Amino acid sequence: MMNKKTVFAAASLALASISAPASAAVLTFNGSGGAIWDYSTLTSTITVPDNFVVTDVNVILNGLSHSYWGDLVISLTHGAVSATLISQEGGSSNANGTFTFDDSAAKSAAQVNTGGGSFRPEVALTAFNGTNSTGAWVLKVADTAWLDTGNLASWSVQLTGNAVAPVPEPATWAMMIIGFGAVGGVMRRRAKVTVTYA
Name one GO molecular function term (predicted). Predict the structure, then answer.
């Protein structure tokens, strides 16, 4: 027969296994680039295998070059959610550098220029908050005019979130049920009071 210490230890272990706080995750996933032609769309997909609830998203365009920023419309899609990073901003300046789109950046997308830097996207990336990280993250770089072309060396999506707690194994559930049952039994025995009348 289990003593009280063993009973409470079993119940505590089982409860901890299903109620432990999820661990934080900050992961960067890399995708390929390609040529950006007149009146065409470069599409690149990153398939994320990790499973966690997204709380923050940043997009990094590595080695973006184009002779006319104002031609470009760039967006990110994941599942049913889509956000425009930049749409025909930057005028006639060249895109030449690494550009990060981050909701907390000091500059807006309207301030984009040559040389790279960090910018707030036109549509906040908080649109992806609460979604599950697993699956396809699709970057689209559309050239909307003639005469100017470019290239994207590569790109990255940086995802921050909380890991999804795994479903407890059957043995864990069994331990929890036995533990709580035993705790209940101990509590019932302790609740009995013997009254002796003189």
Answer: serine-type endopeptidase activity
